[in-house]
Amino acid sequence: MGKSSYVFLISLIAAFGGLLFGFDIAIFSGTIPFLQPYYQLTDAQLGWTGSSLYVGCIVGTLVTGYLTDRYGRKLPLTFAAGIFMVSSLLMGWSSSYTWLVVWRIMAGIGVGAASMLSPLYIAEVSPAAIRGRMVSINQLTVVIGILLAYLSNYLLADQENNWRWMFASGAIPAVLFFVCVFLVPESPRWLLSKGRADEARRVLLRLAGSATVVENELQTIRAGMGREVKGKLRDLVQPGIAFIVMLGITMAIFQQISGANAIFFYAPIIFEKAGMNVKDQLFQQIMIGAINLLFTLLAMQLVDKLGRKKLMLAGASLMALWLFLVGLCYALGLFQGYWLTIFVLAFIATYATTLAPVTWVLISEIFPTKVRGIAVSVATCALWTACFALAYGFPVMIASLDAPQTFFIFSGVCLLYFFILLKYIPETKGKTLEQFETEIIRH
Protein backbone atom coordinates (compact mmCIF):
# COMPACT_ATOMS: atom_id res chain seq x y z
CA MET A 1 0.00 0.00 0.00
CA GLY A 2 1.35 3.47 -0.93
CA LYS A 3 2.03 6.03 1.77
CA SER A 4 -0.72 8.41 0.66
CA SER A 5 -3.15 5.47 0.47
CA TYR A 6 -2.21 4.47 4.01
CA VAL A 7 -2.78 8.03 5.29
CA PHE A 8 -6.17 8.05 3.54
CA LEU A 9 -7.13 4.68 5.05
CA ILE A 10 -6.34 5.57 8.66
CA SER A 11 -7.93 9.01 8.19
CA LEU A 12 -11.08 7.34 6.90
CA ILE A 13 -11.20 5.01 9.91
CA ALA A 14 -10.70 7.88 12.35
CA ALA A 15 -13.39 9.88 10.55
CA PHE A 16 -16.03 7.28 11.45
CA GLY A 17 -16.50 9.46 14.52
CA GLY A 18 -18.01 12.03 12.18
CA LEU A 19 -20.27 9.40 10.64
CA LEU A 20 -21.73 8.60 14.07
CA PHE A 21 -22.46 12.30 14.62
CA GLY A 22 -24.15 12.70 11.26
CA PHE A 23 -26.11 9.49 11.66
CA ASP A 24 -27.59 10.51 14.99
CA ILE A 25 -28.56 14.02 13.81
CA ALA A 26 -30.47 12.60 10.88
CA ILE A 27 -31.96 9.65 12.75
CA PHE A 28 -33.58 11.94 15.32
CA SER A 29 -35.15 14.14 12.65
CA GLY A 30 -36.80 11.07 11.13
CA THR A 31 -38.27 9.97 14.45
CA ILE A 32 -40.03 13.32 15.08
CA PRO A 33 -43.33 12.53 13.26
CA PHE A 34 -43.65 9.29 15.27
CA LEU A 35 -41.91 10.08 18.56
CA GLN A 36 -43.76 13.33 19.29
CA PRO A 37 -47.26 11.80 19.21
CA TYR A 38 -46.05 8.58 20.91
CA TYR A 39 -44.99 10.51 24.04
CA GLN A 40 -47.31 13.51 23.39
CA LEU A 41 -44.37 15.91 23.54
CA THR A 42 -44.75 19.68 23.68
CA ASP A 43 -42.50 21.89 21.51
CA ALA A 44 -40.20 22.44 24.51
CA GLN A 45 -40.07 18.71 25.28
CA LEU A 46 -39.30 17.93 21.64
CA GLY A 47 -36.48 20.48 21.79
CA TRP A 48 -35.13 18.87 24.97
CA THR A 49 -35.31 15.39 23.44
CA GLY A 50 -33.34 16.53 20.40
CA SER A 51 -30.85 18.64 22.34
CA SER A 52 -30.20 16.17 25.17
CA LEU A 53 -27.65 14.42 22.95
CA TYR A 54 -25.56 17.59 22.98
CA VAL A 55 -25.47 17.71 26.77
CA GLY A 56 -23.54 14.46 26.45
CA CYS A 57 -21.44 15.93 23.65
CA ILE A 58 -20.37 18.79 25.92
CA VAL A 59 -19.38 16.34 28.66
CA GLY A 60 -17.61 14.13 26.13
CA THR A 61 -15.47 16.94 24.72
CA LEU A 62 -14.49 18.28 28.15
CA VAL A 63 -13.43 14.86 29.46
CA THR A 64 -11.75 13.84 26.21
CA GLY A 65 -9.55 16.94 26.11
CA TYR A 66 -7.80 15.70 29.25
CA LEU A 67 -7.80 12.03 28.22
CA THR A 68 -6.35 12.66 24.76
CA ASP A 69 -3.37 14.62 26.11
CA ARG A 70 -2.73 11.98 28.78
CA TYR A 71 -3.52 8.70 27.00
CA GLY A 72 -3.21 9.56 23.32
CA ARG A 73 -5.72 9.68 20.48
CA LYS A 74 -6.39 6.00 19.80
CA LEU A 75 -7.68 4.75 23.19
CA PRO A 76 -10.34 7.48 23.62
CA LEU A 77 -11.53 6.86 20.03
CA THR A 78 -12.05 3.20 20.93
CA PHE A 79 -14.09 4.05 24.03
CA ALA A 80 -16.17 6.58 22.06
CA ALA A 81 -17.15 3.91 19.53
CA GLY A 82 -18.09 1.47 22.28
CA ILE A 83 -20.25 4.00 24.12
CA PHE A 84 -22.19 4.91 20.99
CA MET A 85 -22.68 1.28 20.03
CA VAL A 86 -24.32 0.36 23.34
CA SER A 87 -26.34 3.56 23.73
CA SER A 88 -27.85 3.29 20.24
CA LEU A 89 -29.42 -0.04 21.11
CA LEU A 90 -30.63 1.22 24.48
CA MET A 91 -32.16 4.36 22.91
CA GLY A 92 -34.13 2.20 20.52
CA TRP A 93 -35.54 -0.06 23.21
CA SER A 94 -35.82 2.40 26.08
CA SER A 95 -38.67 1.59 28.47
CA SER A 96 -39.75 5.19 29.07
CA TYR A 97 -39.26 8.75 27.85
CA THR A 98 -36.90 9.44 30.76
CA TRP A 99 -34.64 6.53 29.83
CA LEU A 100 -34.68 7.60 26.17
CA VAL A 101 -33.24 10.97 27.21
CA VAL A 102 -30.69 9.30 29.51
CA TRP A 103 -29.39 7.09 26.70
CA ARG A 104 -29.32 10.04 24.28
CA ILE A 105 -27.06 11.86 26.73
CA MET A 106 -24.82 8.78 26.94
CA ALA A 107 -24.70 8.56 23.15
CA GLY A 108 -23.71 12.23 23.12
CA ILE A 109 -20.66 11.51 25.27
CA GLY A 110 -19.40 9.11 22.59
CA VAL A 111 -20.30 11.42 19.72
CA GLY A 112 -18.71 14.45 21.42
CA ALA A 113 -15.48 12.59 22.09
CA ALA A 114 -15.23 11.29 18.54
CA SER A 115 -16.12 14.68 17.02
CA MET A 116 -13.04 16.34 18.51
CA LEU A 117 -10.69 13.36 18.26
CA SER A 118 -11.28 12.53 14.60
CA PRO A 119 -10.14 15.83 13.00
CA LEU A 120 -7.39 16.22 15.60
CA TYR A 121 -5.95 12.79 14.83
CA ILE A 122 -6.22 13.24 11.06
CA ALA A 123 -4.44 16.61 11.18
CA GLU A 124 -1.57 15.08 13.12
CA VAL A 125 -0.94 12.17 10.75
CA SER A 126 -1.41 14.03 7.44
CA PRO A 127 1.30 15.82 5.38
CA ALA A 128 0.75 19.60 5.06
CA ALA A 129 0.06 19.44 1.30
CA ILE A 130 -3.00 17.22 1.71
CA ARG A 131 -3.96 17.95 5.33
CA GLY A 132 -7.02 20.04 4.44
CA ARG A 133 -8.34 17.31 2.15
CA MET A 134 -7.70 14.63 4.76
CA VAL A 135 -9.40 16.53 7.60
CA SER A 136 -12.32 17.15 5.23
CA ILE A 137 -12.82 13.37 5.21
CA ASN A 138 -14.29 13.85 8.68
CA GLN A 139 -16.99 16.11 7.28
CA LEU A 140 -17.48 13.69 4.37
CA THR A 141 -18.29 10.89 6.81
CA VAL A 142 -20.65 13.23 8.70
CA VAL A 143 -22.70 13.76 5.55
CA ILE A 144 -22.51 10.08 4.59
CA GLY A 145 -23.90 9.33 8.04
CA ILE A 146 -26.69 11.86 7.49
CA LEU A 147 -27.61 10.38 4.12
CA LEU A 148 -27.52 6.79 5.43
CA ALA A 149 -29.78 7.75 8.31
CA TYR A 150 -32.24 9.55 6.01
CA LEU A 151 -32.41 6.43 3.85
CA SER A 152 -32.87 4.28 6.96
CA ASN A 153 -35.66 6.55 8.21
CA TYR A 154 -37.45 6.40 4.86
CA LEU A 155 -37.22 2.59 4.69
CA LEU A 156 -38.27 2.06 8.32
CA ALA A 157 -41.13 4.60 8.34
CA ASP A 158 -43.80 1.98 7.61
CA GLN A 159 -42.51 -0.59 10.12
CA GLU A 160 -44.05 -1.30 13.51
CA ASN A 161 -42.03 0.41 16.27
CA ASN A 162 -40.42 2.47 13.50
CA TRP A 163 -38.80 5.12 15.74
CA ARG A 164 -37.26 2.39 17.92
CA TRP A 165 -35.66 0.69 14.91
CA MET A 166 -34.44 4.06 13.66
CA PHE A 167 -32.52 4.76 16.89
CA ALA A 168 -31.21 1.18 17.20
CA SER A 169 -29.84 1.20 13.64
CA GLY A 170 -27.05 3.53 14.84
CA ALA A 171 -25.36 0.50 16.39
CA ILE A 172 -24.40 -0.80 12.92
CA PRO A 173 -21.85 1.93 12.00
CA ALA A 174 -20.72 2.05 15.65
CA VAL A 175 -19.73 -1.64 15.57
CA LEU A 176 -17.76 -1.11 12.35
CA PHE A 177 -15.98 1.88 13.86
CA PHE A 178 -15.16 -0.02 17.06
CA VAL A 179 -13.57 -2.90 15.12
CA CYS A 180 -11.60 -0.77 12.65
CA VAL A 181 -10.15 1.71 15.14
CA PHE A 182 -7.83 -1.03 16.42
CA LEU A 183 -6.07 -0.88 13.03
CA VAL A 184 -4.86 2.74 13.26
CA PRO A 185 -1.51 3.76 14.80
CA GLU A 186 -1.06 6.30 17.58
CA SER A 187 -0.38 9.93 16.64
CA PRO A 188 3.39 10.42 16.09
CA ARG A 189 3.20 13.97 17.49
CA TRP A 190 1.64 12.71 20.72
CA LEU A 191 4.19 9.88 20.98
CA LEU A 192 7.06 12.34 20.60
CA SER A 193 5.54 14.68 23.20
CA LYS A 194 5.66 11.74 25.65
CA GLY A 195 9.30 10.96 24.90
CA ARG A 196 8.50 7.85 22.85
CA ALA A 197 10.69 8.83 19.90
CA ASP A 198 11.30 5.30 18.57
CA GLU A 199 7.57 4.59 18.34
CA ALA A 200 6.98 7.99 16.70
CA ARG A 201 9.73 7.23 14.15
CA ARG A 202 8.15 3.87 13.26
CA VAL A 203 4.74 5.46 12.73
CA LEU A 204 6.22 8.26 10.61
CA LEU A 205 8.06 5.70 8.46
CA ARG A 206 4.69 4.17 7.60
CA LEU A 207 3.21 7.62 6.94
CA ALA A 208 6.05 9.38 5.11
CA GLY A 209 8.30 6.68 3.66
CA SER A 210 12.00 7.58 3.53
CA ALA A 211 14.15 7.84 6.63
CA THR A 212 15.38 11.30 5.57
CA VAL A 213 11.85 12.68 5.42
CA VAL A 214 11.08 11.10 8.77
CA GLU A 215 14.11 12.64 10.50
CA ASN A 216 13.29 16.07 9.06
CA GLU A 217 9.73 15.71 10.29
CA LEU A 218 10.92 14.67 13.75
CA GLN A 219 13.19 17.73 13.93
CA THR A 220 10.33 20.00 12.84
CA ILE A 221 7.98 18.58 15.45
CA ARG A 222 10.63 18.84 18.19
CA ALA A 223 11.35 22.44 17.24
CA GLY A 224 7.66 23.24 17.47
CA MET A 225 7.34 21.49 20.82
CA GLY A 226 10.30 23.44 22.18
CA ARG A 227 8.39 26.70 21.70
CA GLU A 228 5.23 25.52 23.43
CA VAL A 229 3.69 25.83 26.85
CA LYS A 230 2.19 22.82 28.64
CA GLY A 231 -1.36 21.92 27.83
CA LYS A 232 -3.24 23.24 30.86
CA LEU A 233 -6.51 25.14 30.81
CA ARG A 234 -4.97 28.34 32.21
CA ASP A 235 -2.44 28.37 29.36
CA LEU A 236 -5.20 29.05 26.88
CA VAL A 237 -5.44 32.67 28.12
CA GLN A 238 -1.71 33.37 27.74
CA PRO A 239 -0.50 36.05 25.24
CA GLY A 240 -0.11 34.61 21.76
CA ILE A 241 -2.63 31.85 22.47
CA ALA A 242 -5.76 33.54 23.90
CA PHE A 243 -6.72 35.28 20.65
CA ILE A 244 -6.45 32.15 18.53
CA VAL A 245 -8.49 30.20 21.12
CA MET A 246 -11.24 32.83 21.00
CA LEU A 247 -11.17 32.70 17.20
CA GLY A 248 -11.57 28.91 17.29
CA ILE A 249 -14.52 29.23 19.69
CA THR A 250 -16.15 31.88 17.47
CA MET A 251 -15.86 29.71 14.36
CA ALA A 252 -17.30 26.72 16.22
CA ILE A 253 -20.32 28.68 17.48
CA PHE A 254 -21.15 30.32 14.16
CA GLN A 255 -20.94 27.02 12.31
CA GLN A 256 -23.80 25.79 14.49
CA ILE A 257 -26.01 28.90 14.62
CA SER A 258 -25.80 29.52 10.87
CA GLY A 259 -29.09 27.68 10.36
CA ALA A 260 -27.87 24.50 8.66
CA ASN A 261 -28.38 22.22 11.63
CA ALA A 262 -31.90 23.58 12.14
CA ILE A 263 -32.66 22.04 8.74
CA PHE A 264 -30.80 18.81 9.50
CA PHE A 265 -32.44 18.42 12.94
CA TYR A 266 -35.96 19.56 12.15
CA ALA A 267 -36.56 19.21 8.41
CA PRO A 268 -39.93 17.49 9.02
CA ILE A 269 -41.18 20.55 10.92
CA ILE A 270 -39.92 22.90 8.20
CA PHE A 271 -41.55 20.96 5.37
CA GLU A 272 -44.71 20.26 7.39
CA LYS A 273 -45.28 24.03 7.55
CA ALA A 274 -45.16 24.00 3.75
CA GLY A 275 -48.01 21.43 3.69
CA MET A 276 -46.09 18.19 2.97
CA ASN A 277 -47.14 14.80 4.38
CA VAL A 278 -44.79 12.60 6.42
CA LYS A 279 -43.57 10.44 3.53
CA ASP A 280 -42.83 13.52 1.41
CA GLN A 281 -40.99 15.10 4.35
CA LEU A 282 -38.73 12.05 4.67
CA PHE A 283 -38.10 11.99 0.91
CA GLN A 284 -37.10 15.68 1.00
CA GLN A 285 -34.57 14.70 3.65
CA ILE A 286 -33.01 12.16 1.28
CA MET A 287 -32.58 14.94 -1.28
CA ILE A 288 -30.96 17.13 1.37
CA GLY A 289 -28.61 14.28 2.30
CA ALA A 290 -27.65 13.60 -1.32
CA ILE A 291 -26.88 17.27 -2.05
CA ASN A 292 -24.95 17.47 1.20
CA LEU A 293 -22.78 14.51 0.17
CA LEU A 294 -22.22 15.71 -3.41
CA PHE A 295 -21.02 19.16 -2.39
CA THR A 296 -18.88 17.86 0.47
CA LEU A 297 -16.97 15.86 -2.16
CA LEU A 298 -16.52 19.12 -4.07
CA ALA A 299 -15.25 20.84 -0.92
CA MET A 300 -12.55 18.19 -0.50
CA GLN A 301 -11.15 19.19 -3.90
CA LEU A 302 -11.29 22.92 -3.18
CA VAL A 303 -10.06 23.30 0.40
CA ASP A 304 -6.35 22.85 -0.45
CA LYS A 305 -6.64 24.71 -3.79
CA LEU A 306 -8.65 27.83 -2.99
CA GLY A 307 -7.70 28.08 0.66
CA ARG A 308 -9.72 28.28 3.85
CA LYS A 309 -10.53 32.01 3.97
CA LYS A 310 -12.03 32.33 0.48
CA LEU A 311 -14.31 29.36 1.05
CA MET A 312 -15.48 30.64 4.45
CA LEU A 313 -16.26 34.14 3.10
CA ALA A 314 -18.12 32.78 0.09
CA GLY A 315 -20.08 30.43 2.31
CA ALA A 316 -21.24 32.99 4.88
CA SER A 317 -22.40 35.49 2.24
CA LEU A 318 -24.25 32.96 0.05
CA MET A 319 -25.87 31.26 3.05
CA ALA A 320 -27.23 34.64 4.16
CA LEU A 321 -28.79 35.05 0.71
CA TRP A 322 -30.38 31.59 0.55
CA LEU A 323 -31.83 31.87 4.07
CA PHE A 324 -33.34 35.24 3.19
CA LEU A 325 -35.00 33.66 0.14
CA VAL A 326 -36.31 30.74 2.23
CA GLY A 327 -37.83 33.28 4.61
CA LEU A 328 -39.46 35.04 1.64
CA CYS A 329 -41.03 31.75 0.52
CA TYR A 330 -42.80 31.46 3.87
CA ALA A 331 -43.63 35.18 4.04
CA LEU A 332 -45.21 35.18 0.55
CA GLY A 333 -46.62 31.63 0.63
CA LEU A 334 -44.50 30.46 -2.33
CA PHE A 335 -45.18 26.76 -1.81
CA GLN A 336 -46.41 26.00 -5.32
CA GLY A 337 -43.68 24.54 -7.51
CA TYR A 338 -40.21 23.87 -6.18
CA TRP A 339 -38.94 27.28 -4.99
CA LEU A 340 -38.71 26.32 -1.31
CA THR A 341 -36.95 23.04 -2.10
CA ILE A 342 -34.52 24.78 -4.50
CA PHE A 343 -33.53 27.44 -1.96
CA VAL A 344 -33.14 24.91 0.87
CA LEU A 345 -30.98 22.64 -1.31
CA ALA A 346 -28.88 25.63 -2.50
CA PHE A 347 -28.31 26.57 1.14
CA ILE A 348 -27.26 23.02 2.06
CA ALA A 349 -24.97 22.85 -0.99
CA THR A 350 -23.23 26.08 0.06
CA TYR A 351 -22.89 24.98 3.68
CA ALA A 352 -21.50 21.59 2.63
CA THR A 353 -18.86 23.22 0.43
CA THR A 354 -17.72 25.87 2.91
CA LEU A 355 -18.56 26.27 6.61
CA ALA A 356 -19.22 22.60 7.34
CA PRO A 357 -15.80 21.13 6.39
CA VAL A 358 -13.56 24.20 6.58
CA THR A 359 -14.48 25.00 10.20
CA TRP A 360 -13.23 21.56 11.29
CA VAL A 361 -10.07 21.98 9.19
CA LEU A 362 -9.24 25.32 10.82
CA ILE A 363 -10.02 24.12 14.35
CA SER A 364 -7.67 21.18 13.84
CA GLU A 365 -4.89 23.44 12.47
CA ILE A 366 -4.70 26.71 14.38
CA PHE A 367 -3.71 25.61 17.91
CA PRO A 368 -0.11 24.92 19.17
CA THR A 369 0.68 21.22 19.55
CA LYS A 370 1.12 21.02 23.33
CA VAL A 371 -2.22 22.75 23.97
CA ARG A 372 -3.94 21.42 20.89
CA GLY A 373 -5.83 18.67 22.70
CA ILE A 374 -7.27 20.96 25.38
CA ALA A 375 -7.82 23.85 22.94
CA VAL A 376 -9.69 21.67 20.44
CA SER A 377 -11.68 20.34 23.38
CA VAL A 378 -12.71 23.86 24.47
CA ALA A 379 -13.60 24.92 20.91
CA THR A 380 -15.57 21.73 20.29
CA CYS A 381 -17.32 22.15 23.64
CA ALA A 382 -18.39 25.63 22.50
CA LEU A 383 -19.62 24.07 19.25
CA TRP A 384 -21.76 21.54 21.12
CA THR A 385 -23.08 24.22 23.49
CA ALA A 386 -24.26 26.23 20.48
CA CYS A 387 -25.62 23.03 18.94
CA PHE A 388 -27.58 22.32 22.14
CA ALA A 389 -29.03 25.84 22.17
CA LEU A 390 -30.09 25.54 18.53
CA ALA A 391 -31.58 22.04 18.89
CA TYR A 392 -33.49 23.03 22.04
CA GLY A 393 -34.60 26.45 20.83
CA PHE A 394 -35.62 25.91 17.20
CA PRO A 395 -39.00 24.16 17.77
CA VAL A 396 -39.94 26.83 20.32
CA MET A 397 -38.56 29.63 18.14
CA ILE A 398 -40.43 28.67 14.97
CA ALA A 399 -43.65 28.18 16.99
CA SER A 400 -43.34 31.41 19.02
CA LEU A 401 -42.27 33.64 16.14
CA ASP A 402 -43.09 32.37 12.68
CA ALA A 403 -41.13 30.73 9.85
CA PRO A 404 -40.26 33.97 7.95
CA GLN A 405 -38.87 35.72 11.05
CA THR A 406 -36.93 32.61 12.05
CA PHE A 407 -35.14 32.33 8.71
CA PHE A 408 -34.55 36.09 8.45
CA ILE A 409 -32.78 35.91 11.83
CA PHE A 410 -30.55 33.07 10.61
CA SER A 411 -29.79 35.10 7.47
CA GLY A 412 -28.67 38.03 9.65
CA VAL A 413 -26.42 35.72 11.69
CA CYS A 414 -24.64 34.55 8.52
CA LEU A 415 -24.17 38.14 7.32
CA LEU A 416 -22.62 39.13 10.66
CA TYR A 417 -20.29 36.13 10.45
CA PHE A 418 -19.13 37.25 7.00
CA PHE A 419 -17.72 40.49 8.44
CA ILE A 420 -16.08 38.67 11.37
CA LEU A 421 -14.39 36.28 8.94
CA LEU A 422 -13.31 39.12 6.68
CA LYS A 423 -11.42 40.83 9.49
CA TYR A 424 -10.04 37.99 11.60
CA ILE A 425 -9.84 34.63 9.77
CA PRO A 426 -6.28 33.38 9.08
CA GLU A 427 -5.15 31.45 6.01
CA THR A 428 -3.45 28.12 6.78
CA LYS A 429 -3.36 26.69 3.26
CA GLY A 430 -0.12 24.83 2.45
CA LYS A 431 1.54 25.54 5.82
CA THR A 432 2.77 22.94 8.27
CA LEU A 433 1.21 23.04 11.71
CA GLU A 434 4.56 24.24 13.07
CA GLN A 435 4.92 27.04 10.47
CA PHE A 436 1.48 28.41 11.23
CA GLU A 437 2.12 28.19 14.95
CA THR A 438 5.30 30.29 14.57
CA GLU A 439 3.37 32.96 12.64
CA ILE A 440 0.60 33.14 15.25
CA ILE A 441 3.00 33.47 18.17
CA ARG A 442 4.98 36.12 16.26
CA HIS A 443 1.82 38.20 15.81
Please state roughly what percent of the residues sit in beta strands, choosing from under 5%, 5-15%, 15-25%, 25-35%, 35-45% or over 45%: under 5%
* Main beta-sheet strand count, sense and barrel state: none
Query: Which architecture per CATH?
Result: Up-down Bundle
Q: How many individual domains?
A: 1
Which consecutive residue ranges, at least 5 long each, have pLDDT under 50? none
End-to-end CA span: 41 Å
Number of helices: 20
The secondary-structure class comes to: mainly alpha
Question: What is the number of strand segments?
Answer: 0
CATH topology term: Growth Hormone, Chain: A
CATH superfamily: MFS general substrate transporter like domains
Reading off the top of the CATH hierarchy, the class is best stated as: Mainly Alpha
User: Secondary-structure element order, as H and E?
Assistant: HHHHHHHHHHHHHHHHHHHH
What percent of the residues sit in helical stretches (DSSP H or I)? over 70%
Mean pLDDT: 83
Q: Rg, please?
A: 21 Å
Globally, the shape reads globular
